[in-house]
Backbone:
């Protein structure tokens, strides 16, 4: 596949992640934790890890974070999204590569949700200069289980259907 096709695919993934981000902004989340979100954009991150590998998924995550901040964020949302997104990407990629036969995409997604929250708590501690914000982490980790399971099931479903049309095999040489 040409680099034009690969870059077009990356752009499509970014667009899909942005649509999920915008839809998520419209959903009232009645969680007990203020600021908690479903992390629907992470569905696209999981799919990208499986098809493209780390380097190109990094492009997807960075573009998604930058564009979502442009569309409706602030400097602080950029910091939180970037830290959570990058830490999540690293953790999910490691789990996907190291636990290929032992961990399902649901497990990979849960790890991603957990590390996304850890990244955001680290930034919170640095921004407000108060380590007590870490007391909020257990609540976020419990919520990570639900969102990680949902996003993992959705990612698995999407990849299953992409395999049915032999889509994924077209991208093997891209690093997935």
Residues:
């Amino acid at each position: 596949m040409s680099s034009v096709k690969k870059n077009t695919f990356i752009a499509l993934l970014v667009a899909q992640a942005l649509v999920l981000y915008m839809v998520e902004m419209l959903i009232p989340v009645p969680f007990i934790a203020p600021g908690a979100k479903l992390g629907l954009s992470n569905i696209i991150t999981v799919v990208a890890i499986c098809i493209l590998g780390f380097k190109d998924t990094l492009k997807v995550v960075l573009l998604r974070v930058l564009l979502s901040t442009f569309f409706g964020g602030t400097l602080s949302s950029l910091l939180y999204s970037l830290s959570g997104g990058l830490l999540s990407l690293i953790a999910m990629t490691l789990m996907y590569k190291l636990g290929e036969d032992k961990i399902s995409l649901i497990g990979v997604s849960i790890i991603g949700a957990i590390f996304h929250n850890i990244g955001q708590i680290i930034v919170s501690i640095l921004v407000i200069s108060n380590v007590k914000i870490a007391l909020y982490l257990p609540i976020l980790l419990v919520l990570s289980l639900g969102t990680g399971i949902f996003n993992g099931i959705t990612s698995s479903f999407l990849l299953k259907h992409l395999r049915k049309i032999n889509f994924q095999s077209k991208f093997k040489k891209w690093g997935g």
Remarks:
- Helices lie at 3-26, 41-52, 54-72, 75-98, 105-128, 137-164.
- DSSP finds six helices and no strands in the chain.
